[in-house]
Design brief:
- The complex is a heterotrimer.
- By secondary structure, chain A is mainly α.
- Chain A contains eleven helices and no strands.
- The two termini of chain A are 24 Å apart.
- The C terminus of chain B is likely disordered.
- The radius of gyration of chain B is 19 Å and the shape is globular.
- The two termini of chain B are 31 Å apart.
- In chain B, a hairpin with a 2-residue loop joins strand 1 and strand 2.
- Chain B has nine helices and ten strands.
- The relative contact order of chain B is 0.17.
- By secondary structure, chain B is of the alpha/beta class.
- Helices cover 35% and strands 25% of the residues of chain B.
- Chain C is an alpha/beta fold.
- Chain C has 13 helices and twelve strands.
- Chain C has an eight-stranded mixed beta sheet with strand order 6-7-8-3-9-10-12-11, with helices on both faces. A four-stranded antiparallel beta sheet of chain C has the order 2-1-4-5.
- In chain C, strand 7, helix 8 and strand 8 form a beta-alpha-beta unit.
- Chain C is globular, with a radius of gyration of 21 Å.
- The chains are: A mainly alpha, B alpha/beta, C alpha/beta.
- Chains in contact: A-B, A-C, B-C.
- Chains A and C meet through loops of A and loops of C.
């Protein structure tokens, strides 16, 4: 079977021509994500678009205080009513999408980058270094995010940044633990020994061989962490450690809407909670689908 | 070191510490590998043959003894990056496990091209062409990820990758043992072709399969529990084995007119050899 | 010699992402009582699945068609209780890697006496019997081995223990799935010698599955060759080795190096062995066959008997006129 390197096909349909490759990739993505994964991905894309264009699409000024109509129910003027300062809830919900999505994004980036680097370096070095890193991470494990948040707030003052740093640091050991165990396993495989045998430097092997093979796991882990980070940040906002009033943020809105519940105007809290829940759900579903092994491995 | 010798091992010892106990994997062996020679190292589990291969590849360090190759000597302690790379340019290895000896994320061409980029001083634009040439030389005409290649095809990629650096010594650690019988023959033919095309290349073939030894080797070393019990030309050792272990090994292989040996009590064996 | 195990047109399919995949397409096999039959094939041949089908230890979702009879009784239709007595007392199986088939946290004694004590036999009686079983597999110090854990024993010893365990129920048929592949060459010969001796002493029938044609031929009276889930050839072992008929068997023997002498170049088969679900329509070996004709690609050749063997090749009579004469299909 003589064929050029690009177009010959083995019984398993290997090397394929370029346009087919794109179609094949799209089909693979659809198969991997499934219906739930695609729905989750679409929802997240939609929310991202909303967050990015928030200032342009919000119907009313989210900061406009109208003390005459506080805790008003839904009406044609205010689709989701008003909050305790008479501000339009719907607009605040839209604008609140920004910190709500940005915060977890920063947390995940911080924890994933630092956690993965620590994990890979530690798995490669082994021995004493691995032990030291392990014990340090155990120490971090012991600190709940809340405590770190209080510390951060004490140092930096209450803000989104403080909350992000606190939660980000708290998440490092979770990422590191998962990535390290897989890195240790990959390290023992012959193809890594083959790279060493070629005289590649450890840095090169880790960056060009180990990391790409860990990427699916890291990405799946990061996606699920997004959801958890969102919950933790919302909790911190709820407690007053994160985004401060008058800025709009879903977690903050859940807290601020509390008095409204007793006044039979629970729309603010409920709608903000609802947004948090479906966003976290979408991330979790997407992360699980990405992490799911794609069919039988040969 | 005279030019006719590709590798020289002198009094090599390797001792491992396994849960507190000292285990001697290689107990003082010496041999020379001539340029262009094909040497088979035969042994069963626990013989130390894989440890020997790893030491020659500088994946492990000897406890004592010397290994000389390509004008370099293996240091006792850590090897510096540059020295490591130079050693890699002299000796390469093809592993037994064809399923995980290739990076799952690299295609065959990328894999060989990377080896070229590290050693062969080939200009970037020419690397792909040279990689294709090497792959075709081992009989692989398609480019794909390892998971889309069969076992025999993966081993061909591993051989092409090893040859890309133009080493003096090619070590094959049970390289065909995991392949189907009809595919083993294909890979053995590839190796025979390579020997014909590069007469200066020395092969060190580690195997337990005596038929493969007969087919591909000039000389053979028989190892048992870390020592060389017999050594000589293939025809001499296989037709007139001198050492009892070699005789037992030879008698265990089915052949024309072979019949099962008489059933006997279990030979003393302590646990599963860690090596 | 009465027929003990008969497999006829067995087909085994497993579910997969792309629908049902056949791992055995059409297997036919007979074992007489006291007979040793070798089943040889490469990866994808379906040989292991055949044996598992005969013991009904296939994955739950497998779909099986065809017939398997033991002493005339259909194995595939056996109820749960009959299946248990069948598996313990009539047929036994030993596997390739003994270390994964022995529970690492139980002693050898526990392993061997488990089935007996389950049936109400007293503990000391069971242990005595276990000790005598170990002596039969020529373990010199049964008492010590009975109280050992698997990891304390070498591979060869573990396999002897597995064999002892298989024989505990006094089966009449032993299915051995690559029992020596994971062992060293010298240990391999010892273990096979024991199995052979026990077989002859007890009149045990055996199905010996292997990828090693020479080994199977040396150990068994008859050898069956499978390719891509189908039986392609069957002959008495010496005849098969000396004079194979099916092009696949010929190719397989030719591509092996010989221990006796070096060959200038091995006469290899192109391509790689296929599994049943990968095979094209028509003869599964057609893509690799040097004697292929158009007719071969259209229809699967049936298994035709000749002399004391059988072959599934359209051109068998043509290529081996002295051995295979045209016969009406059985």
């Amino acid at each position: 079977m003589s064929a050029s390197p690009l177009t010959a096909a083995s019984p398993r349909g290997a090397g394929v021509v370029l346009p087919q490759r794109v179609r094949g990739a799209a089909r693979a993505i659809v198969a991997r994500l499934g219906v739930s994964g695609i729905a989750a991905a679409l929802l997240l894309v939609f929310l991202t678009v909303v967050a990015v264009f928030a200032p342009d699409i919000r119907p009313q000024d989210p900061d406009l205080v109208q003390l005459g109509s506080t805790f008003a129910g839904p009406s044609s003027a205010h689709w989701l009513g008003t909050d305790q300062s008479g501000r339009d809830v719907f607009s605040r919900l839209i604008v609140g999408a920004r910190p709500a999505l940005l915060g977890p994004l920063l947390v995940v980036v911080l924890a994933t980058v630092i956690g993965s680097i620590l994990a890979i370096a530690s798995a490669w070095a082994g021995g004493i270094i691995d032990g030291i890193v392990g014990r340090t991470l155990d120490l971090l494990f012991a600190f709940p995010a809340i405590l770190l948040a209080i510390l951060a707030v004490a140092v930096l003052g209450a803000s989104l940044l403080a909350a992000v740093i606190a939660v980000g640091i708290a998440y490092i050991p979770y990422v590191a633990r998962v990535v390290r165990s897989e890195a240790v396993r990959q390290r023992t495989l012959p193809y890594i020994a083959a790279c060493e045998a070629q005289g590649q430097s450890p840095a090169r092997i880790c960056a060009r061989h180990l990391l790409p093979n860990l990427l699916p796991l890291i990405i799946a882990q990061a996606t699920v962490s997004f959801g958890y980070a969102m919950i933790d940040l919302s909790a911190l906002s709820f407690l007053g450690f994160g985004v401060q009033a008058p800025a709009a943020d879903w977690g903050e809105m859940v807290a601020a809407g509390e008095p409204g519940i007793l006044l039979h105007a629970p729309v603010e809290s409920i709608s903000a909670s609802f947004m948090i829940v479906i966003t976290v759900l979408a991330f979790t579903v997407l992360g699980e689908r990405l992490g799911a092994p794609a069919g039988r491995r040969v | 070191m005279p030019e006719q010798v590709a590798a020289a091992v002198t009094d090599l010892r390797k001792v491992f510490k396994v849960s507190g106990q000292e285990v001697t994997a290689v107990a003082g062996i010496s041999f020379k590998l001539a340029r262009g020679e094909s040497l088979a190292v035969v042994g069963e589990s626990g013989s130390g043959k894989t440890t020997l291969a790893r030491i020659l590849m500088a994946l492990d360090r000897p406890t004592s003894g010397t290994v000389e190759l390509g004008g370099m000597r293996l240091p006792r302690g850590r090897m510096r990056s540059r020295a490591r790379r130079r050693w890699a340019g002299h000796v390469q290895m093809v592993f037994q496990d064809c399923y995980s000896s290739l990076d799952p994320r690299q295609t065959a061409r990328q894999c060989v091209a990377e080896a070229l980029s590290l050693h062969a001083h080939v200009a970037r634009g020419e690397r792909t062409a040279r990689a294709i040439e090497l792959l075709e030389r081992v009989g692989l005409h398609i480019d794909a990820l390892p998971r889309d290649l069969s076992g025999g095809q993966r081993q061909r990629v591993a051989i092409a990758r090893a040859l890309a650096v133009a080493p003096r010594v090619l070590i094959l650690d049970e390289a065909v043992a995991a392949l189907d019988v009809s595919v083993q023959g294909q890979v053995l033919n590839v190796l025979a072709d390579i020997r014909d095309e590069t007469p200066n290349l020395s092969l060190l073939f580690i195997t337990h399969d005596l038929a493969v030894v007969r087919q591909i080797a000039d000389r053979v070393l028989v190892m048992e529990r870390g020592t060389v019990v017999e050594e000589g030309r293939v025809d001499d050792v296989l037709d007139r084995p001198a050492h009892p272990y070699t005789q037992r090994l030879r008698a265990s292989v089915p052949d024309a007119g072979w019949s099962l040996p008489k059933a006997g009590p279990a030979q003393a064996g302590a646990g599963n050899g860690p090596l | 010699m009465s027929e003990m195990l008969a497999i006829q047109q067995l087909r085994v399919e497993l579910p997969s992402a792309d629908g049902w995949r056949a791992v055995v397409a059409d297997a036919t096999l007979r074992i007489g009582s006291g007979e040793a039959v070798g089943l040889v094939g490469e990866s994808g041949s379906g040989k292991s699945m055949c044996a598992r089908a005969a013991m009904r230890i296939l994955p739950d979702r497998a779909r099986v068609t065809g017939t398997i009879t033991f002493d005339g009784e259909s194995v595939l239709d056996m109820g749960a209780r009959r299946l248990r007595s069948y598996c313990g007392e009539e047929v036994a199986m030993i596997f390739q890697d003994p270390s994964v088939h022995l529970n690492p946290i139980r002693t050898v004694g526990d392993f061997l006496t488990e089935a007996l004590r389950d049936r109400g036999v007293a503990k000391h009686v069971a242990y005595e019997r276990a000790g005598s079983l170990l002596s039969q597999v020529l373990i010199a110090d049964p008492a010590r081995v009975l109280s050992s854990y698997p990891h304390q024993l070498s591979g060869g010893m573990q396999q002897r223990v597995m064999i002892a365990g298989a024989l505990a129920g006094e089966p009449r048929l032993l299915l051995a799935d690559e029992p020596t592949t994971a062992l060293d060459v010298t240990t391999q010969a010892e273990v096979l010698a024991i199995v052979d001796r026990l077989r002859r002493e007890r009149g045990l029938a055996m199905l010996f599955i292997s990828h090693d044609l020479e080994l199977a031929a040396a150990v068994c009276d008859r050898t069956v060759v499978m390719y891509a889930g189908r039986t392609v050839e069957e002959q008495p072992s010496t005849a098969l080795h000396r004079d194979p008929v099916h092009p696949y068997t010929v190719g397989l023997l030719a591509s092996r190096p010989h221990i006796a002498a070096r060959q200038p170049r091995l006469d290899v088969l192109p391509g790689r062995p296929l599994a049943a679900y990968e095979a094209p329509p028509g003869c599964p070996f057609a893509p690799r066959c040097a004697h292929v004709q158009d007719a071969c690609r259209e229809q699967v050749p049936p298994l035709q008997e000749f002399g004391d063997g059988a072959v599934a090749c359209r051109r068998a009579a043509e290529l081996h006129p002295s051995r295979v004469t045209e016969r009406v299909d059985a």
